[in-house]
Amino acid sequence: MAWLDTRLLTVLTFFPLAWGVVGLMLPSGKDGKAVKAWSLVGTLLTFWISWILLGKFNGGTADFQFTENLPWIPGLGINYNLGVDGLSIWLIMLTTFLMPIVVLGAFTAVEERVKEFFFLLLALETGMLGAFVTLDAFLFYVFWEFMLIPMYFLIGIWGGKDRIYAAMKFFIYTMVGSLLMLVALFYLMHQHQLQFGSYSAAITDLYKLKLAGDGWFSVQGLLFLAFALAFAIKVPLFPLHTWLPDAHVQAPTAGSVVLAGVLLKMGGYGFLRFAFPLFPQAVAQYQMVFMALGAIAIVYGAWVAMVQPDIKKLVAYSSVSHMGYVVIGLFSLNTVGVTGSIYQMLNHGISTGALFLLVGMIYERRHTREISDFGGITKVMPLFAVAFLIVTLSSVALPGTNGFIGEFLILLGTWKTSQWTAVVAGTGVIFGAVYMLWMFQRVMFGPLKNPENEKLKDLSLREALVLLPLLVMAVWMGIKPNLFFNKMDASVAAFLERSVVKSAANDQAPSAPSQKAAPVPGASAKSKTSKI
Amino acid sequence: MSDEPLIATATTLNTIRPELLTMTFGQMAALSPWIWALGGALSMMLAAVLFKTWKWVVPALMIMATAGAAWSSTMLMDLGDQFLFNRMMLVDRFTLVFTVLFAISALVTTLSSMKYLDREGLQHPEYYILMLFSMIGMMNMVSALDLVVIFVALELMSISVYVLVGFRRADRRSNEAAVKYFVLGGAASAVFLYGSALLYGATGSINIQEILAAVEAGRAGGSLLFVLGAALVIFGFLFKVASFPFHMWMPDVYEGAPAPITGFMTTGIKAASFATFVRVMAGLGYGDGLAEAVQKHLHDILWISAALTMVIGNVIALTQVNLKRMLAYSSIAHTGYLLVGILVGPASDSGYGPIYLYLLAYTVMNLGAFAVLSALAKRGDSGINLHDMAGLSKRQPLMAFGMAVFLFSMAGIPPTAGFAAKYLLFYSAVQAGEIWITVIAVLCSAISVYYYLRVLVYMYMREPAEAGGSAGRSWMASAAVLAMIVLTLQIGVLPSRVIETAKSISKTAVPQIGQAGARAAR
Amino acid sequence: MSLPPVEPWVVLAFSAAIFFVGLFGLLVRRNLLIILMSIELMLNAVNLTYVTFSHQLSSMAGQMSVFFIITVAAAESAVGLGLVIALYRTLKTVDTDEITLLKD
Amino acid sequence: MTAINPIAFYLFAGVALAFSVMTVLRKNPVSSAFSLVMVFFSFAGIYAILGAHLIATLQVLVYAGAIMVLFVFVVMLLNSDSPSFDFRRTPALFRVAAGLVCAALFVLFVRVFKNSPPVLTPGAFTAEAVDAAGGNTRVISELMFSEYVLPFELTSVLLLAAIVGAVALAKRHSVAKPVSKKGVAHVAATR
Amino acid sequence: MLKLIPLFPLLGFLVNGLWYALIQSRPGAKKAGSTVTGGLASLAILGSFIVSVKVFLQLRGMPEASRVIEETLFSWIQVGDLNVPMTLRVDVLSTLFTMVISGVGFLIHVYSIGYMSHDETPGKFFTYLNLFCFAMLMLVMGANLPILFLGWEGVGLCSYLLIGYWYTDDEKASAGKKAFIVNRIGDLGFLLGMFLIFTTFQTLDFVEIRAAFSNSPTGVLPAGVTFETLSAIGLLLFVGCMGKSAQIPLYVWLPDAMAGPTPVSALIHAATMVTSGIYLVARLNFLYSLAPTASVVVAGVGAFTAFMAATIAITQRDIKKVLAYSTVSQLGYMFLACGVGGYVAGVFHVITHAFFKALMFLGAGSVIHGMHEEQDIMKMGGLRSKMPQTFLVFLIGWLAISGLPPFSGFFSKDEILWLSFASMKGSKVLWAMGAMTAVMTAFYMSRLFFLTFMGKPRTHEAEHAHESPFVMTGPLWVLAILSAIGGFMGIPPVISEVFGAHDINWLAHWLNPVVPHHVELNPGTTHAMEWALMGLSVLGALVGIFVAKGLYRDLAKAESLKQKFAGVHNILTNKWYVDALYDAVIVRPLVNFSKFLWRGFDVLVIDGFVNGLGRLSAWTGNAARVMQTGSVQTYAIMALLGLLITVGYLVYGLA
Fold it and tell me: How much is the pTM?
């Protein structure tokens, strides 16, 4: 298996696509059962491969691991350069973890063009994994754009009533942002050539660039804006979020889950991998702007979610709110905040993914997503209610669930950097509870008014199997977050090393060391052991 | 050679030089693509007259001729620069790669034409013969180092295509397109010629190399006469490639022409025009030898023209429902991107390489798209409106998939050829310091996504309006589409070879004079 | 009375005049045949420019070019007229106002 | 460079200019065509003055002879009477605009010609040298088959293409029948 | 061993929960009865109680200064400089709480077996109840703030679930939601307070924070910490307490929370959860005592809440609502105590209150149970004879809360009143409010008591009310005894002196290592004053009782009084219109503003802008199409214009 060690990431990335291509050749059968099973096996195998990766991953180092480097377009210094570190490993795991769930969840939802549907899902997985594992900025862009294609079709073909509008909007919105990023990327590659005399698009090389960074519209500032625009759209950050509600609502359940679960993370990951380490001075310059936007997104998303009549739209706006946390955590630029952000990305993938699945399940039964059509569902679907409740709690960040760890760390990190941002963002904790519980009440509680709801069937075994891993993870991640932190601590430290400007230009960064400078006498008491 | 004018004799003029009538082996070898093409044209004419079964023989010969030309061109890649015919013609990599491109264009057009012509009742040998002549014109255009040769080749290409555009003689659209094309093309040729006359006056030569030498020696680069001549010559090319505001003929002509011919024009003629444009720009010393003020002014003109071309092409394409016409406007938009390539060529590392790559990608995807349209069109090129595409993915999956790939490619989405082309181009633009035109370009391509994807929407996301009988299928067209899909994806996924090729031709558009022997300078 | 010898620029200006007269005709006339004639005028003006420079520079290239241009112009006219006839066959007109089917 | 005879030049130039204007502005195409012939003849004269004897001859033969015959033939063949003088149908604004653009360009051109003459040293083909080498025609024909063999050959291909094209256009293979809506008009190839 | 305390209820929760969710909840499946599920749950909590007592005994056996038991289970959150181990720690303070929680909890569990015997889904009920106990135990055993917060929100969750237990009733579900959300507002304060603590002390562990104080270089403040920071921390955390412990302005959820089953009200909304705010303040007493501003606010809010809630309680007709406002009022007392520095008094009142209020709630439950779910006291009356046992225990509870000696309420309440008067941080105003509250408490409790048990049955149900089974009355008796004697654990020195003993205030001594009982008194306070005030408050209570007796033996009198003060009565029945005010000022505007943001801003402005860009492109395209006339000449002249501009630019630019 030596070859596997050196080519593990390639195998991981392209396995789903290859598997999907084979799947296209399977007989359609009556309702595509063969294809469905085939795809499920494929995603499970991918998950297994990623487990191998995780098992061999060394959390103690910030270096890239499992690196592969082959010339791809040597003329421009673009290489097929793969590797993982602590920033990406969990996002990879999240992707491979969610995909079998998505596939299994879509078994009954898809009736038309089954083959294409599952092929696109698998292709999408390759695109997402590719974006996470690549260390070449250009290759990243390729995967980044490539992802749009399957998603576009998933929304456009299997979506709801306004699917075409939503698909177009999704595609073009994202494209506008990423194209400017492409220009900025070219500028960086060009700078590398000027400064080092050779072409390169490897991010480790680009990190070494020296770019003028004073002022709002310095070189760094403009480049940062170009990158940030792409990522902010993907995240999506207020006020660039309006594609999301449309895309989410119109997409089929599987699409929504992947969109919320993984695709949005691309934005956060992009900030982590590119925008921050490449332009530290610009980040310091724009820090407060983005923190303010993130805080606005949190509150705004929550408020707008509160008044949505459509469950899916509500969940979509809740994504805006939740991803706002990710942004402020990243821009807090300290270990706690950044770790929290990464963690929050995983949490959001799990809890919002589960929410979309749940919404999809009742949609399949009732063919409506209007909150007002429901009420008292607990009575007829108790198991569903339990699952829904746990997911809701995870979403409102109840301690003991994953959401709490993320939001706690983010708010704490933000507090260290900007107390007012933390206060504003903190109100999201309240409003999050407001919209989630209100929705939960209107859907699940109250009398069973609508006679159509009386015959609803509770979760089938398949559906329970779909939800179970998510529920377990939601709780598990709230109890043992250290398992996750262990693998990313070193990388986060290295990330901050690169991304925080050490000069006086950033008045926030030195605050952490200065506090450390005043040691607390009681700190040594930490190692007190149990007396029983 | 003595240059005492007072005792000039016949020998001093030395008008007959035997060495011009002999050729080295290399020079002969360099002509092999022409031999394939010309031989093909002549045998096709003969076959058309001699064989009753010309209907199969002529296209077969056509395929042979184009494939042969392409093959022999590939073989010659490492031959080195070959100057022929008193250095009026240069067979170098630049010429050869474009020859391959023209051959692909003609070959694929042939494949997609067969069934189409049957359907239209236009199956005539002249169709193929003229296409081949046109291809010969293109080949001579890119290989020419002499403005008059360029003119003659240009006319050879154009005249053949005028006829092809009007080939559906019973259709007034076709006629109208041909006449419009002819009138405006003729006028543009006249302007181009006027420009070359003025260049001749300013530099004393109509040979590109000598013009360049004159410019570099500072003899002409700054004179207004030269600048005016250059402006007119550039006008001629801007007209041919249809850049703003000289683009207006193009949509009408493209819409009126038979679908395969439109494909041929958008690829072959465009590529030939651009390649020659590059040669001529290099010959004028653009970016390398021109006086600074002239350089700056020409740069400004190209900048504005490129920007407006991109914008106009894309925004008008947004409003189109006829796919042929939409692709025509999209072609204008692509002209804009290509102009960026010319704009930045001299200042970037890849030189004019991005133009080649872009044209290659554009050729592949556009040929594919038009092959699809030719296969789908009903009589009289009807039935290729947007709403006719509804549900195509169910009726003709291959065609729909092909169209999707080509459209994604045109929109520049990875992993397609169009993306590879765009990134090399934009990268060069950034390298040349032209950030803002690049920004305009990328924003325009974002706009373009809308109208490209709209076709996909119809093909994949709508149900067919009526169960309208689909046009008959042709395995040749299918083969052509399939080949183009493969090429589009191949260039997109593994672009390194074509990028290397592109970079290798980048700086050699016009070799310095004095290389490889002297020319009879007059 | 003896006029001063004609400066070459006067000849050039004269050919430019012819050229623009041709261009003007192309713009304002609706009859395709006259438009074709206008193009011929333009080509002739170019020829004259070539010959003038050829004369001025004691170079043969200009005259050689004119030779080819004349040939090409002849061929072009033939094809052009052929197209006009084809158009006339379908539309029964040679008026450019009538051929605006393709637009927008 | 020999001096250009002013009287002859202005005579020919005047005639050419006048008839070119008539070509453009005559109502009747036949009249235009004959005006054009006059222009061609005048040009031939100017060529002769400039020492381009072969070109002058060709001008008369090809242009005034062949091309004009073709034109007149087509004009007669089509016999298309415009319902009114089409010049007047062009909107006045358009006419003015066209005139202004042409005039402006003309002014620009002349400005350039006058202020920026060629600054090159003359080449070898002075009138004397050409005469000594056997005259204009001989020099051209010798050049044609040595230095200019490529455009010459290419021109022959072009003529071939034009012939094929003209044949394709003129062949009576398809009846000029508009495609009917039902698409039944199957047009058979007559070969 | 410590981990066993929360582990038992957690196991109970898992067993009951999985059993219920996976098996009982299936459609058509047979539901397990309350005996089995409740028995299971009660056993679990009994286990906790036993371990708690063992731990308590163990602590007692230790030297006073080191009465701490700590157990680290695993490392919970460790990121950068933040280290939060999952550590349980029981010291003198928390051991009391664990015992009260598990003890009272056990009683209530047992009681519930009877109370919920007719319920459809007792499995679910006991699942929640066990989960609650687990969370509550975590709250008091957590060694650091995040664990406390875990319990803090956990109990909030259970409160939410149990209030909305009968979810098919929209109002009940809404009450649960309201409780959660209002608590969340407080939790934000808690979180921020926690952050401020972390940035100030670099730790969240109580012991370590305290160490920062004891190791302070100046002897008062830790290095680099100001009074302002401490006050800010105190205030932020107090916001959390306001939510959890139902203080103004966040008390509104508690009365609504009575929608839940009565045992829930007893356990969560009287005995345990709502007192966690006091626990927190007592736990951080070293911090609050150095935060003057925070202390003033705590005392003021406490006093005002006590007063206002008492006024509302006077006019309520729902038996549980009266008790609920009473709870709010008593919680106000506790904060008043903490605010004036009497942390021990606060804790003392927590414990006694837990006894007698649980007792009264359970008693009320028994009444409701006997009355077939009737809660309006106006429809009761004369239950003394129908439900004699309930009557007796309720009597004890009534006397305890009214503050009559020697019942438990007397001791704790009196200490609070005394401190609010005599402490350095106290004032006459605070005392006056406290004293008036005491009078009102006696009044409304007596009103409740008389209307319920005395007089004649006023309705059919009241006539046919029946006594509850032993499984319910048993716990009542236990609580009644505790309510009666519970006060002796904290006999104030001034009383013990009379009996010749020195200082037998056991509670104060016990708590001393964690909560110092020494309170800085105003100079010039004497024992005589303490006696006088004590007498005054007993007198006030008696006045309250007798006024109530006078009024409510004969309802006509009460009626006429109501007519006389109709305006005041209206305000009081409508709870000072606070709910309406919140609705009008916060809820509705927020919803409307959010709708505006959605339809007006999101859809119109942002999307309008985005779609507008698209439309602008298409419009430009259409405009540019106008040029495309189809006429050759137009094309030509456009091209020529372009040429003219180009040439002109070149010629003039270069000339």
Answer: 0.89
pLDDT tens digits, D72-91: 888 888 776 655 567 777 88
User: Could you give the CA distance from residue A362 to residue A311 in angstroms, rounded to a whole number?
Assistant: 10
ipTM value, please give it.
0.87
Q: How far apart are CA A49 and CA A135, in angstroms?
A: 20
Q: How many domains does chain C have?
A: 1
Residue C53 lies in a domain: yes
Series of mean pLDDT values for 10-residue runs along chain C (104 residues): 78 92 90 89 92 87 90 91 87 81 78
Sign of CA dihedral E602, E608, E613, E614: positive
What confidence tens digit (pLDDT) does each residue in E190-203 have?
999 999 999 888 88
Q: Classify the C-alpha dihedral A276-A277-A279-A284 as positive or negative.
A: positive
Lowest mean pLDDT among A328-342, B102-116, E403-417: E403-417
Phi/psi for E468 (5° steps) reads -80, 160
The answer to whether D26 touches D32, Cβ cutoff 8 Å, is: yes
Q: Which residues of chain A have pLDDT under 50?
A: 504-532
CA B314 to chain centre: 20
Cα–Cα nearest to B166, from C101, C100, C80, C37: C80
User: H or E segment at A201?
Assistant: none
Residues 12-51 of C with CB under 8 A from B: 12, 19, 22-23, 26, 32, 35-36, 39, 42-43, 45-46, 49-50
Residues of chain E with C-beta less than 8 angstroms from the C-beta of D97: 637
* Spatial CB neighbours of E239, under 8 Å, sequence gap ≥ 6: E185, E186, E188, E189, E190, E193, E250
The span from the CA of B510 to the CA of B87, in Å, is: 12
What is the Cα–Cα distance from B212 to E650, expressed in whole angstroms?
Answer: 20
CA angle A182-A188-A190, nearest 5°?
105
Contacts of A146 in chain B (CB under 8 A): 413-415
> Number of C-alpha atoms within 13 angstroms, CB side, residue B263?
31
Token couple for B230? 């250059």
What gap in Å lies between CA C24 and CA D97, rounded to an integer? 10
Whether there are 3 or more C-beta pairs closer than 8 Å between A and D is no
Instruction: Choose among D3, D86, D98: nearest Cβ to C5.
Output: D3
What SS3 state is found at E370?
A: helix
**Nearest-CA residue of chain E relative to C97?**
E631
User: Domain residues for C33?
Assistant: 8-98
Tell me the CATH number of domain D1-81, given options 1.20.120.1200, 1.10.606.20, 3.60.110.10, 1.10.3470.10.
Answer: 1.20.120.1200
Dihedral sign of CA atoms B408, B414, B420, B426 in order = positive
Q: With beta carbons less than 8 A apart as the criterion, state whether E430 and E538 touch.
A: no
Give the containing element (helix H, strand E) for A167: helix A163-196
d(C-alpha E225, C-alpha A324), whole Å: 32
Check which CATH number belongs to the domain holding C41 and give it: 1.10.287.3510
Q: Are A154 and A124 in contact (CB under 8 A)?
A: yes
CA-to-CA distance for A420 and A418, rounded, in angstroms? 6
CA separation for the pair D88, B361 (Å, rounded):
48
**Tokens (6 digits) for D138:** 């001989």
CB within 8 Å of E445: residues ≥ 6 apart: E322, E326, E398, E401, E402, E548
Q: Do B239 and E639 touch (CB under 8 A)?
A: yes
Residue entry with tokens 């000339």: E655
Q: Does E630 touch chain C (CB under 8 A)?
A: yes
- Name the DSSP class of A72: E
* Distance of alpha carbon D47 from alpha carbon B79, whole angstroms: 44
d(C-alpha E572, C-alpha E562), whole Å: 11
Instruction: Quote the DSSP letter at residue E91.
Output: E
D109 touches chain B (CB under 8 A): yes
